[in-house]
Amino acid sequence: MKLWESYHIPSTTSEALALLERYQGQARVVAGGTDLLVEAKAETHAPFVALIDITRIPELMSLEVSANEVIIGAGATHAQIVKHPVLASRATCLVESCGVVGGPQVRNVATLGGNVAHALPAADGTTSLIALDAQAEVIIEGQRRWLPLKELFLGPGKSALNPARDLLVRFRLALCGTRQASAFKRIMRPQGVALPILGCAAWVELDETGQHFASARVSIAPIGPTPARASEVEAQLVGQPTDEATIERVAHWAQAALHPRTSKYRATADYRREMIGVLLRRTLGLAVERARTGQAIPQGVGL
Amino acid sequence: MAELKITVNGQHYQRDVAESRTLAQFLRYDLGLTGTKIGCEEAECGICTVLVDGMPVDSCIYPVWKAAGRSVTTIEGLTQGDELHPIQRQFIRHGAVQCGFCTPGLMMTSCALLEENPNPTEQDVKIALKDTYCRCTGYTSVIQAIQSAGREMQGLPPLPVNDPEVSEPLRVISRSVMPQEAVEKVTGAAKYTDDYVFEGMLYARTLRSPLPHARILAIRTDKAKALPGVRAVLTYEDVPGENLHGLVYRDWPVLCHDVVRYVGDAVAIVAADSEDIAALALKLIEVDYQPLPVVADPIYAHSPEAPILHPNHPTGNLLKHIKVRHGDVERGFAEADVIVENTYRTPTTEHAFLEPECSVGVPKGYPGHDKLTVYVGSQIPYQDRNQIARAMGLPEEEVRVVGTLIGGGFGGKEDIAGQIHVAMLATVTGLPVKMLYSRQESLIFHPKRHATIIKIKTGARRDGKLVAIQAELYGDGGAYASLSDKVMTRATTHATGPYEVPNAQIDCYAMYTNNVPSGAFRGFGVTQSAFAVEQNMDMIAEALGMDALELRRINAQRVGVTTATGQLLRESVGLLETIGDVQQDMYAHHNGSGFRWAWREGHKAYGWGVACAYKNTGLGGGAPDKSEAEIEAFEDGSVEVRTAAADMGQGIAHVVAQCAAEELAVPYEKVRVLLCDTDRTPNGGPTTASRQTFMTGNAARHAAIALREAFTQYAAELYDVSPDSIRYEEGLLRTNGKAVEVGEIVKHMKAHGVQPRTRYEYHAPATQPLGTGGDMHFAFSYATQAALVEVDTETGEVHVLKIVSSTDIGRAINPLMLQGQIEGGIIMAMGNCLSEAFIIEEGKPWSRLLARYKMPSIKHTPHIISRLVEDRASAGPYGAKGVGEIPSINTTPAICNAIYNAVGVRVFSIPVDQDALLRAMKAGQKAVYTAWQDVK
Ligand SMILES: Cc1cc2nc3c(=O)[nH]c(=O)nc-3n(C[C@H](O)[C@H](O)[C@H](O)COP(=O)(O)OP(=O)(O)OC[C@H]3O[C@@H](n4cnc5c(N)ncnc54)[C@H](O)[C@@H]3O)c2cc1C
Ligand code: FES
Ligand code: FES
User: What is the pLDDT of residue B592?
Assistant: First the structure.
């Protein structure tokens, strides 16, 4: 059965906004459709009156790298991000998380903006964007502005964007410089839905000696109802030596301090707590090594 | 509608296209490029993959307007003129095509990979094809085919074909000839049911019960009937004949009347001018239900307080109590030095054949159709005809069933799906009517593998000899009987394992519940009992301090053994040889460094596990089992074999062609096969119970022998020579220095009014019903497998690295395609062990999306080493017996035994849950009784 009636492909944001306005809440923004159309299939409600495809708006499709920063259009696909050499070495966790979403067919159309706008607590791309402290440019109620990514999320599947009115335009994040690096890993199970049991992205900055954490950002998901930083864990790292003992201690500490939940057909809280430790050890260890050597080659892409 | 500009396979189109179309719909239904298949519409299976500007995408969720101005390549665009693309050629060459339904998707995904990287490693292939599924092949041949194609594209020699070793090949038999219709399957020309289009055809949909158990108080169809474009809305009142169907018990309403018994029960059907109108009409049908208490599990079903679901069934919710009694178990256990007793659980599982069910009904009188005709990809065309005729109130001769290609079945296409519904709608509307199920509908509707609870006690003496087995099995039969009786009988009779067990007492309770019905699924109940039997065996070995293979060797069935059903095994019991093979290959893995059952490397634990299996060939149990085939020769020297024996990808078509070619000494390429048309092909019987090679292979072989004898008689008279002097080779008949083409003889025969056509009805050796002793089955296949697993002790994740297998199939008629059955069976069984469970919550299916039911993908493919044992079955064609099911029986317990050996935790419930496994390891517990579906 058809899932939508009309299909529009605007070429500017203002055209897109005008179309949304014209349909008065009856139209939906679509990018790759890998969340929207698959979910629509699962439900039995009436077809969408109109879909507004944002993937031919140049502003949303850009991927601009400058000296220390990258701007990624909301319509950039997972495949584009994964194949980008600068992102691979300087926003490694983002490439690693985008690289494990779906298979090639899905990554060729699924967008980073869609991953964020869908607002699931454990979407992979989102987890890494949070650790990279990304900003998002949005147009909400016609007002264009930048805001910290985490402010976009209101609850599971709920964002500040009204999908029948607003647009997510692009993301901005700082690229890793000297003594900075990141890593992402997740735990999946071979059964059930394609969402991680737990995902973890870590960004670290080492001090001049390379022996201590100068700063750290960690995002572990799902823990709360929305994607968020594990700031207590970060605080435990800063100033500490970058050795195994620190990581082990922090991993232990985090297992006790964080309270993941049991979710049906995904994982028990106990298992997730174990995985907090495993993932922190694996990602922090890797990020430290990358920061030290200045070499970062994404792992696990496509698997 | 608006004007779309798009390029497809190099051709520019500019035409009005509905904005609501997906790319897949546009290609299939607007352009008629039906090579692109639809399997799920969830971006999950990948078989709809096409290239957009060279990039693979899932066309099922890709809006066609997204492709505006772009260039699309489909399977039809791979061929250059008549020349196959290297990918197409290599898929055929490596035997990577079975049912063919996934083939276009696999090839398009591979095409994109090879454009970028013509030298892919196995890992590269796995990454590229991770989300492009195949349910038949098991992927090993697919990986090789892709690598070979890449080499061919660079002018390098392709990889060798993984053709297994066989003994005493004949001229065509035991040769890996190309399967029938392989070229059609790789070019997209092959036609499955949804690829059929008839002028004026209507589209049908089914209204299904949203409740697991309810009384129907009223059904109102007026609003639906009034919707423009709706041609018919039918309910139980409109069933012209008997409103029941069912293969063993006729207990399943065509359309529910007073009660619905599961979520998915059919209540009304609609035919309309388009699918969208039909779907809209369903929403306008009003049904008043009064919910009734739900019987959600088989043990509750057996309790006195459970409501009775089928009041006419004499034993209430107990569909059948099945018993095996052999010797005296009490005395047996008294002799035992060690006894283990455990309870195992297996979940409901889903076939997930990649082609959802589809039927097309064409009314009598429609051009080219002199009777009511149903086109369907069904495993049992003649039984379909019978069931359609009874429901339509027609004599069987007034119904014709035409079998189309089948995109996988595995047992899930034996029961009636839409066949009767389209017959009703076509008759009422006077027009052809197509009913295609969506994946989501297919998931909730069709019968599944039985969930079971198996309590089993095994006793052995110190020397390893088994002395007794006692077991109690509960099988969740679901809302209707389907094949539960037969399936659970097989679970029961095979619950001793392939061993000599002097004393056995096995009771099985097949129960009605309000869950989705259970029926046939590759392995037919034995998959479940083997999970229990073979883990108990390992526990006995451990308790006795004995090698797990040695214990099996001591007890293995061999010639002279009497089974627990009282059958004396007189021949063709190759189990011991399979055990030896597996031991050798398992040891060879450690070449020289000494075999170890388990070891550790860092946080990874490794372990080997083994399991044996056996599986009957044919219906057995006293059921008359027969198959008929017809062979006709033509003036051009070609031959046609006709039989209604369904080929769902397993390959009966090439088996009968090989039998005919062998006996008639004509080249294999000269043999055509016509399958499954109840007006033109005699009854080959059901494709079930691994029976077709044996049964229809024999029918074709005997028909061919009869035809050859007819040639000989005729030629002897014609040339005035002794019949004994006549020899056949390569399409020629030789006598006294003379060589005549077979086609010449045909011409002579026809000129004299003799039809060069023979029919043969093959009857299987007689069998006895359970409980009467004697031969319950006429042949068994045997197998041993070993699994090497890696368990991550930090996360509990389990990976199967290697499967070593040896299978006694009597004779490999087509070694390469048989290898495909084995590899495919193993991978399917890995899904059974590690990922698959169809979850039903209080009668309501949670697994109503393919996204919630994970079958193995190419990335799970382990290294498979497979050997064949050919212990001939004297009555089988050239000594062959069944292979369809045997490979998918012992993989599950082999993996679970390996997990135990690796980490010391025994898994009593599948699919293996890494979460529970890890928690058990951390807590020092030795057993896990819950599975993934228990994580709540
Ligand atoms: C087989 C498969 C496997 C998957 N595996 C994973 C996985 O492992 N991990 C994971 O995290 N996800 C996974 N996904 C989910 C999915 O691919 C991602 O969430 C994807 O990033 C969504 O992007 P999209 O472009 O397809 O979004 P769409 O489906 O087009 O849109 C998603 C939502 O975002 C809104 N939206 C999209 N773009 C904008 C915009 N620019 N402005 C405003 N609103 C917008 C839409 O209206 C909609 O509500 C999987 C999906 C499939 C089908
Ligand atoms: S992914 Fe498109 S049909 Fe399954
Ligand atoms: S051949 Fe792949 S699904 Fe049948």
Answer: 75
Answer for the pair B907, B928: CB distance below 8 angstroms, yes or no.
Answer: yes
A214 and A198, same domain (yes or no): yes
Distance of CA B98 from the midpoint of ligand 3 (Å): 5
* CATH assignment of the domain containing A103: 3.30.465.10
Phi then psi for A194, rounded to 5 degrees?
A: -85, 60
Of A3, A264, A303, the CB nearest to B127: A303
Residue A98 parent element (H or E): helix A92-98
Q: What pLDDT was estimated at residue B1?
A: 67
In a domain, A225, yes or no: yes
Cα B206 to Cα B172: distance, rounded to the nearest angstrom: 47
- Closest-CA residue to A187 (of A105, A248, A265, A272): A272
| Per-residue model confidence as pLDDT tens digits over A163-218 | 999 999 999 999 999 999 999 999 999 999 999 999 999 999 999 999 999 999 99
| CA separation for the pair B566, B561 (Å, rounded) | 9
CA–CA dist B522, B821 (Å, integer): 11
Digit-coded pLDDT (tens) for A70-97: 999 999 999 999 999 999 999 999 999 9
Same-domain pairing of A198 and A229 = yes
Structural domain of residue A137, as residue ranges?
58-174
Residues of A in contact with B922 (CB under 8 A): 274
Distances (CA, A) of B47 to B50, B182, B267, B746, B834: 9, 17, 31, 45, 23
Q: What is the largest CA-CA distance in chain A?
A: 62
Q: Which ranges constitute the DSSP H helices of B430-521?
A: 439-445, 484-493
Alpha carbon distance A29, B881 (integer Å): 58
* Residue at A303 is within a domain: no
pLDDT in tens, A38-76: 988 877 778 999 999 999 999 999 999 999 999 999 999
Out of A38, A100, A101, A161, mutate this one to test ligand 1's pocket (max ligand atoms within 8 Å of CB): namely A101
| 3-state secondary structure at position B796 | coil
The CA distance from B651 to B676, in Å, is: 14
Q: Would residue B561 be called left, alpha or beta, if left means φ above 0 and alpha means ψ between -120 and 50 degrees?
A: beta
Provide Rg for chain A, Cα atoms.
19
Residues of chain B under the 50 pLDDT cut: none
Question: Among all ligands shown, which has an atom nearest to the Cα of B101?
Answer: 3
What is the assigned CATH class of domain B196-292+355-407+413-445?
A: alpha beta
Closest of B598, B603, B549 to residue B576, by C-alpha:
B549
CA distances to A91, A292, A297, A302, B402 from A213, rounded to whole Å, are 18, 11, 21, 30, 72
Nearest-by-CA chain B residue for A80: B55
> How would you class B154 by CB atoms within 10 Å of its CB: exposed for 0-12, middle for 13-18, buried for 19 or more?
exposed
Is the N-terminal amide bond of A222 cis, ω within 30° of 0?
yes
Does domain B452-619+771-934 sit in CATH 3.30.365.10?
Answer: yes
Amino acid identity of residue B67, one-letter, is: A
Distance between CA B657 and CA B813 in Å, rounded? 11
Q: Which ligand is nearest to the CA of B405?
A: 3
Domains held by chain A: number: 3
Average pLDDT score over residue span A254-268: 97
- Which residue, B61, B419, B64, is CA-closest to B254? B419
Helices (H), strands (E): how many in chain A? 12, 13
Ligand 3 site, residue B38, Cβ cutoff 6 A: no
pTM here is 0.98
Confidence band of A1 (pLDDT split at 50, 70, 90): confident
For residue A296, tell me if it sits in a domain. Answer: no
Q: Give contacts of B839 with chain A, Cβ < 8 Å.
A: 265
- The CA distance from B483 to B865, in Å, is 33
